[in-house]
Amino acid sequence: MRYIDIHAHMVSRTTDDYYQMALTGCVAVTEPAFWPGWDRSSADSFEDYFRQLTEFEPKRAAAYGIRHYTWLCLNPKEGEDRDLARRVLERIPRYLDRPNVLGIGEIGLNRVTRNELATFEDHVALAVEHGQLIHIHTPHLEDKLKGTRLTIETLLRYEGLRPERVMIDHAEEHTLEMILRHGFWAGITLYPQTKVSAQRAADMIERFGPDRICVASACDWGPSVPVAVPQFVMEMRRRKHPEALIHRVVYENPIAFLRQCPKFEVPE
Ligand SMILES: [Zn+2]
pLDDT, tens digit, for every residue of 203-257? Predict the structure, then answer.
């Protein structure tokens, strides 16, 4: 089945992962800027990363027939450093016109600190000012509920911000309803160990329906599976859900959200 993975950190993956994704029907990925597992030492380092995301990675994906799009930001974890955030934020606008950049992301909160919130607000203001789509990370485990709540409260304060142009990702059973109720899109990212499994994602689609929900692999440098979306497809088939419903979640929904950015082209 054709699918679009809206959250895949491909800079962390090998070409074999692109190959496996292409074999299982992936036609496009969107790659949010994120924390590399270690803190970068300067704004220059982010600039090199932005060049990798906008110049090199699209070529690597194209070799497997996969369209590569990206989101730019300084991630929630490094966002704790306010000086660094200021220096990176002033450089981001130079990259927003690049052909594969869809918006600002994945921004948000990690430990839900005052500094993280300030950096998150700076990013939202930048996105509103430049008319960008937004992709949001929500904290994991015990910080998820309060972090998601604070994220939504913060977003609702921006008058120029339209909720249907924002994807709030890493949604779980206890945060999904709150995200959807306010008109945002919700992302469910799948992981092989902790966090959401294909089974739990299928349960959530059964409970909440398919409207404004996307499912993604989030594959990165830690334990994660680049073909997690087709694994979700298999779980949905095992439960005898109609192909049209599955197709909607893994292909039509990502298109409906992403095409709000005119640069996004539906893959042939
Ligand atoms: Zn991520």
Answer: 999 999 999 999 999 999 999 999 999 999 999 999 999 999 999 999 999 999 9
Tell me which residue has tokens 């909160």.
109
Query: Please, are residues 167 and 257 in contact by the beta-carbon 8 Å criterion?
Result: yes
Distance of CA 253 to the CA centre of its chain: 14
pTM beyond 0.90:
yes
CB 35 within 8 A of CB 75: yes
Give the Å distance between the CA of 1 and the centre of ligand 1.
23
Q: Where in the chain are the domains?
A: 3-258
Residue 110: strand pairing partners: none
pLDDT in tens, 147-169: 999 999 999 999 989 999 999 99
- 242 C-alpha vs ligand 1 centroid, how far in Å? 29
**Class of residue 48 by CB neighbours under 10 A (exposed 0-12, middle 13-18, buried 19+):** exposed
User: What distance in angstroms lies between residue 49's CA and the mean position of ligand 1's atoms?
Assistant: 15
CA trace torsion 117, 122, 128, 130 (10° rounding) = -150
Task: Tell me, in angstroms, the distance from the centre of ligand 1 to residue 9's CA.
Answer: 6
> Which fold, 3-258?
TIM Barrel (3.20.20)
